Amino acid sequence: MRKEIAEVIGTFTLVFFGCGSAVFMGTEIGMLGISFAFGLAVMAMAYSMGHISGAHLNPAVSMGVKMAGKMSTTEMIRYWVAQTVGAIIAALAIIAIATGQADYTVADNGLGQNGYGTGYLGEYNIMSAVIFEVIATFLFVTVILGATQKNAPAAMAGLVIGLTLVVIHLVGINITGTSVNPARSIGPALFTGPKSMMQLPVFIIAPLVGGALAGIVFKMGITRAED
């Protein structure tokens, strides 16, 4: 269970620091600060948990690794469960802290949940949300598979992956809040009302499609260095 525990801790860290930065400090640090919170959290976990579980922290990454032929279906499902549990615990921890402020309510202040359409940040429609999430997740998982493949400079992998997530957030926060990670979306959505739950399938399916495509392309050898 060491790998699964590492994924719980790692995904908890990602959601707690990433979504927590939006909830507790969003108005002070803005979208740039939130972007770095997500990226630096992934970077920290990549270097501290990567040697245990690979630090996927994301069902779409595990999907990409599976489609690349580097993981079994059973192990992927176990990672998915662990990642989702970590994200849910993180969302609960954010709620527990945030409700210590007298004027905080989940309905008014949210949990850094993903969304689209009227009333959500840039108010982009569902098509924009799907296109962004598929493309961004494809690129993110492609970077991960490339940076962690044989003969790649291992010491740089966590840095590259973390900075890639920063860039993705800089582009995508105003579109969807940036998911590229079903677990990261599931955790907050469970506690932020019916609209979040109705929109949640976009943030599960689109990232999984993007991750799967990245894994397939890698396995075909298009983005893989010669063995």
Layout: helices, strands, pairs:
Layout: H1 2-53, H2 59-67, H3 73-98, H4 106-109, H5 126-147, H6 154-176, H7 182-189, H8 194-219
Helix pairs in contact: 1-3, 1-6, 1-7, 2-3, 2-5, 2-8, 3-7, 5-6, 5-8, 7-8
Overview of this structure, please?
This protein is mainly α and 227 residues long. It contains eight helices and no strands. It has helices spanning 2-53, 59-67, 73-98, 106-109, 126-147, 154-176, 182-189, 194-219. α2 crosses α5 (126-147), α3 (73-98) packs parallel to α7 (182-189) and α7 (182-189) runs antiparallel to α8. The mean pLDDT is 96.
Which features does this protein show?
single chain, 227 residues, mainly alpha, Glycerol uptake facilitator protein, 8 helices, 0% strand
Q: Major beta sheet, specifics?
A: none
Mean pLDDT across residues: 96
H/E element sequence? HHHHHHHH
Helix share bin: over 70%
Intertermini distance:
31 Å
Specify the CATH class: Mainly Alpha
Going by CATH, the architecture would be Up-down Bundle
The helix tally amounts to: 8
Structural class by SSE content: mainly alpha
Q: What is Rg?
A: 16 Å
**Based on DSSP secondary structure assignment, what is the total number of beta strands?**
0
The CATH homology group name = Glycerol uptake facilitator protein
What percentage of the residues does DSSP assign to strands (E)?
Answer: under 5%
Uncertain residue ranges = none
Shape: globular
The CATH topology turns out to be Glycerol uptake facilitator protein
Count of discrete structural domains: 1
Concise description?
The chain has 8 helices and no strands. The model has no long low-confidence stretch (mean pLDDT 96). It has a single domain (2-219), classed as Glycerol uptake facilitator protein.
